[in-house]
Write a structure and sequence with these properties.
By secondary structure, this protein is of the alpha/beta class. The protein has 2 domains: about 70 residues, Methylated DNA-protein cysteine methyltransferase domain (Double Stranded RNA Binding Domain, 2-Layer Sandwich), CATH 3.30.160; about 90 residues, Winged helix-like DNA-binding domain superfamily/Winged helix DNA-binding domain (Arc Repressor Mutant, subunit A). It is built from 5 helices and 6 strands; from the N terminus they run E-E-E-E-H-H-E-H-H-E-H. It has a 4-stranded mixed β-sheet with strand order 3-2-1-4, with helices on one face. The radius of gyration is 16 Å and the shape is globular. It starts with a strand and ends in a 17-residue tail after the last helix. It is an enzyme of class 2 (transferase).
C-alpha cells in the first residue's frame, strides 16, 4: 500500500507518496511520469507524519531557507543506475546548475568506464520520483538549455529563479521555440 498526500506549493499542486515511513514520491499533479514508480494500490492519507515533515521542509524551501535533504527520510524507487544519478543530484548546491554531461562524466568516473551517455543520464533524471527535494530542476543541457523537466519547463524556471540561479547564461525556450 502506498499513501498519498497533498501540498499546495507556490508553483503548483504537489502529490506526496509514502510507504508509511519514508517519502517515496513528490510529483507535480499530472506531471509526466506521475506515480510512475508506484505499482501498489494507493490510498489518500494526508495526516501521515512523513507528510507533515515533508510539508515543513517544503514550507522552509519556499520561504527561502535551504533545508537539507538529509532532514527527511527519503527512499526513491528505481534501478541502481537511476539511484546513482539521483544521488549525484542531491549533491548539487542550491542556486547552482550542472549539465547532463557533467553527471555522465561523474558516473563514467565512478564506474571506471570511458564514456557514459548523457541521454541515459537524462532518462534517469526525468524519472526522479522525488522532485524538488532531489533537485532534478538543477540539471540543464550542455549549452545551458532548460530541457527535460517532467513537471514542465515553466516550473523548472520558477524553481531556478526561486533559488536565485544566474539565468543569464541559460537558454530559456519560449513558446514555439525548438531546442
Amino acid at each position: 500500500m502506498v499513501y498519498l498526500g497533498n501540498y499546495a506549493s507556490p508553483v503548483g499542486d504537489i502529490v506526496l507518496g509514502s510507504d508509511g515511513e519514508n517519502l517515496i514520491g513528490l510529483w507535480f499533479k499530472d506531471q509526466k511520469y506521475f506515480l510512475d514508480s508506484i505499482k501498489e494500490d494507493t490510498v489518500q492519507k494526508d495526516d501521515l507524519n512523513i507528510f507533515n515533515e515533508t510539508s515543513k521542509w517544503l514550507d522552509k524551501y519556499f520561504s527561502g531557507e535551504k533545508p537539507l535533504i538529509s532532514d527527511l527520510p527519503i527512499s526513491p524507487r528505481g534501478s541502481d543506475f537511476r539511484k546513482s544519478i539521483w544521488k549525484i543530484l542531491c549533491e548539487i548546491p542550491y542556486g547552482k546548475v550542472i549539465t547532463y554531461n557533467d553527471i555522465a562524466k561523474e558516473i563514467a568516473n565512478q564506474k571506471g568506464i570511458e564514456h557514459m551517455s548523457a541521454q541515459a543520464v537524462g532518462g534517469a533524471v526525468s524519472h526522479n520520483p522525488i522532485s524538488i527535494i532531489i533537485p532534478c530542476h538543477r540539471v540543464v543541457g550542455s549549452k545551458g538549455s532548460l530541457t527535460g523537466y517532467a513537471g514542465g519547463i515553466d516550473k523548472k524556471i520558477k524553481l531556478l529563479e526561486h533559488e536565485k540561479v544566474d539565468m543569464s547564461n541559460l537558454f530559456i525556450p519560449r513558446k514555439g521555440t525548438a531546442l
